[in-house]
Amino acid sequence: IEEMQSNGVEVLDLTCPVVKHIHNVISEQSAMGKDLIMIGNPEHDEVIASISYCTSHIEVVPPSEIEKIKIGEKETIIVFQTTILPSIVEKLSNFLKQSSFFLNKTFVIYNTVCYTTTIQQNDISLIGNKFDAIIVVGDTRSSNTKNLFDVAKSTNKNCYFCEGKKDIDKIKKSLKESSSIAITAGASTPR
């Protein structure tokens, strides 16, 4: 990017502001020599890109393994993949506060969960059971869309994942009996 800019190419950084915040936290805190932990899927592009900003030690911990977190003697900074369920942040916070092992440890938790995905998940959890069916539109590989689907499915068993027209064609019969259908979409789904 720097080479392109030095050659007069205008470069626009369109990174999501929430993801950019994680990059800044990791970059700044690691430059101060602090250890970092990122809660997220180690194979997710966002996580891979985020940890590349670390100049000290960073450990990636999958959400299913938060009870295995180890905090050393240095101050430790904890960040989250933006698409982690808010309940994971709460679970980790409670775990760290209640565990006697962490009483003499210094750690700071940055809640870096995307506010847009949190709002969508909260909304669908509040209204999902008021509809005959729910359609969640988005990429089946998208972490935030998968989480949104899981939340929707927990409120309404008639929940369908839809990536495109082929999926609509598959679920048409199931929807014929529905008089009300909620439609929601993952944060990265074009509107």
Q: Which structural category fits the helices and strands? A: alpha/beta
Proportion of residues in extended strands = 15-25%
Number of contiguous helices: 7
Low confidence ranges: none
Widest sheet, order of strands: 2-1-3-4
The rounded distance between the terminal residues' Cα atoms is 29 Å
- Silhouette: flat
Oligomer: single chain
Could you describe the largest sheet, including whether it forms a barrel?
4 strands, parallel
Please bin the fraction of helical residues: 40-55%
Average pLDDT for all residues? 89
Secondary-structure element pattern, one letter each: HHEHEEHEHEHEHE
Radius of gyration: 20 Å
Number of strands: 7
Secondary structure elements and pairings:
Blueprint: H1 2-6, H2 17-31, E1 35-39, H3 45-51, E2 58-61, E3 76-80, H4 86-98, E4 107-109, H5 115-127, E5 133-137, H6 143-155, E6 159-162, H7 165-175, E7 181-185
Parallel strand pairs: 1-2, 1-3, 3-4, 5-6, 5-7
Task: Kindly describe this structure.
With 191 residues, the protein is of the alpha/beta class. The protein contains 7 helices and 7 strands. The protein has a 4-stranded parallel beta sheet with strand order 2-1-3-4, covered by helices on one side. A 3-stranded parallel beta sheet has the order 6-5-7, with helices on both faces. Helix 3 links the parallel strand 1 and strand 2. Helix 2 (17-31) runs parallel beside helix 3 (45-51) and helix 5 (115-127) runs parallel beside helix 6. The protein is flat. The model has no long low-confidence stretch (mean pLDDT 89).
